Amino acid sequence: MASVQDVSPLDRLNREFIEAVREIMYLAIKIDSPYDRVKVMHWVRRLREQDDTKLRAAQIRNEYAQYLRIMLSGETLYFCAPFKKEPPEVLAPLPEALTNMMSEKCPDLPKTGKECEYTITFVVLKAI
């Protein structure tokens, strides 16, 4: 039997994801609204489609799974961003996705991500 020390970080993340999905499914069957249950299933399906062979992709997938699990375990079901919408094909890191969704509501907030890094770099270089 393998000890805890022998388990790779990727295996640990994959096991953590399986446990989170089990709990999400248990919580999802208690949702009254069929529409909301379907929404949860869409997100679980998208999370399961993510690459589980790369460490960073597994970390991002687990961030979303844990956030969804926490949301479903509350007394009242209320879908927050990013779960209000259909899941995107490619998942951005959760903090980046949440920041970008907040910046859509508050235009004064900066966006994040590679595209924005390019814009900021261009503006800084142009200023120099």
TrEMBL record:
Residues 13-96 form the DUF4485 domain. It comes from the Eukaryota. This is DUF4485 domain-containing protein. The lineage of its organism: Eukaryota, Metazoa, Ecdysozoa, Arthropoda, Hexapoda.
